[in-house]
Structures are given as C-alpha cells and as structure tokens.
Description:
Blueprint: E1 18-22, E2 30-44, H1 50-56, E3 65-74, E4 78-83, E5 86-92, H2 122-142, E6 145-150, E7 174-179, H3 185-202, H4 222-228, H5 230-260, H6 285-297, H7 302-309
Antiparallel strand pairs: 1-2, 2-3, 3-4, 4-5, 6-7
Amino acid sequence: MLQFAQTIDLELIEAPRALPVLEENDYKKIRYYIQHFGQKKNALSRKNSFLARLLSGGTQTGDNRRVVAVTEITSADAWQRYEDKQLVAECRLPWGFLPVVHIQNIAQPYYYEGLSDVETLIPLQDELNTRLSDRASRITFQSFKMYLGKGIEGFEDKPVSPGRMWYTDNPEASIEEFGGDTETPSEASHIAEIREAMDKVSAVTPIVAGVLKNKLGNLTSAVALRLTLMGMLSKNDRKRFTYSEGLKKICRMVLEILDTANIYKTDQKERDVEIIFPSPLPENTMEKLQEAQIKKELGVPAEQVLRELGYENS
C-alpha cells in the first residue's frame, strides 16, 4: 500500500453514495465509511444477448457494458471492496486514521449532517411560484381590453381598430374602455414581501446579486460596504471558517501519509497550515499606508509594520 502513497487522490464524494457509521458516543467521529455506487466494466452485459435483443425487437440502444454494484468499506486500519456482494480486494491501512474529511455546508450542533442553504427557502419559493402563476394566468385570460359604446348606432358591427371612425349626432355618445390587466397593488405588494423575505433568509441581498433598485449613495468606504452587506459578510465568514478547518485536516492527513510512507518527513508542528482567503471588500491602499504610518509613530517595530503590509525583508 505504501508504494501508492506518491499518487494521493482527493475525491469529492456525493452524499447519496456514502454512508458514514459514527461512533455511538461521539457524532463527530466516523468509525466506518461505506460507499456504494455502480461502475461500468469493459465486458458486455448479459442483457445484450441474442435472446434479449430478440425479445426487445431490436430497440435496445446506448451503452451495453456490464455494470457492477461496488461497495467499499473503509476504517482506520483496513479497506475492503465488494463487487456484486463478492469480496474482490482488501488491504491494511498503515495510517492509523480514517482518510475522510467531512465538511458541513452549515454547521448543525450535535448532528453529523449539515444544513442546506436552500432548504429554508423552499416554502417561500413555492409561495412565490404560486403567486407568479396566478399572475400569469390572469394576464393570459384577462389581458384583452373591451369597449362599451354609448349612443353610437352600429357600434357592434364595427370593431375597434386603428383608424376606425364613428359618426353620431348624439352629444351624450361615448366609448369607454374597461378590462385588461389592471393594477393590483395587493398582489404586487405580496410578491415584493416574499422576495424580501427570501433575501433575508438567504442573506444574499439584491445588491450582492447585482440588482440595484434605488440609489445607494456613496459606498466607496469599506465601513459603508460592511454595513450594507453585513448579512452576506457574516455568512461568508462562517463558510470560510468551516471550509478552512476542513482544508487544514486534509493537508494534515496528506502530510502524515507522506511521512508514514517515508516520502516527505514532517513532524506534527510542521503539518499545521494556514488557509488565507482574499477579502471580498475592496482595499484602500492609502488608508492602509496611513494606518501603518500611525503605527510606526506609536512605536510599533518597522519589521512588523512591513510584514502587515505584505513586505518581507530579504
């Protein structure tokens, strides 16, 4: 197993094909990790036999390769692979830990599973779809306009059209327009409230999505942007922390595997890494330089000031 340590693959595993078996007293620890999926082989499927083609009337098309059901069971010290419920491979793992890192989308206390970003939006989206469907139906069946003619002879024989003229001696004659897609303030207000609720629940404001309805004023400073995008920035910080911890675990596992395989020797302290994400807000270089100047005047060492600015002494 050690000879394959030079080719370490990082694989993103979809939730539907995996089944973690957790420790009974600690939901954060995984005892066994089971994967079940279908894998195509180069051999032809038995369904492609002469009898199968004859019974299907020659309508079979597509890939005719044989598909086997693969089940892989991984623990901290062993690995097994089953194909169609038959054990085909197994080995011992020398790492001493389960090489699996679970990153929750949104952390949920006391649960292995994380929370979804869109699950809480489903009821609001259903309500919005219903209201928009009602509006579309109303526009489809009621968008045409109707006319009521008073005191005009033969009005019913001459449809309203561009250039149409009527003649009458009745001074009380008139043509009134009614029907059509009239304004419904309650409907528009309800749809707007649903959309605002979706923005609040998702923490993705229309400004973040690029939808600007009103004037925003002067948002050139970082403080103004933070106040405007407070919900999105806090959500972004939580995601950064969660994914940073997961990436750190992955790096530590990879370095420990390489150390065990005598490919790249490291100790426990050297396996600690730091994940740095760029700031989502624009940075003002002049403000940073002025802040550095003030720190220097207050007695902060020049080496530390330069390090904070991103300059390292050669």
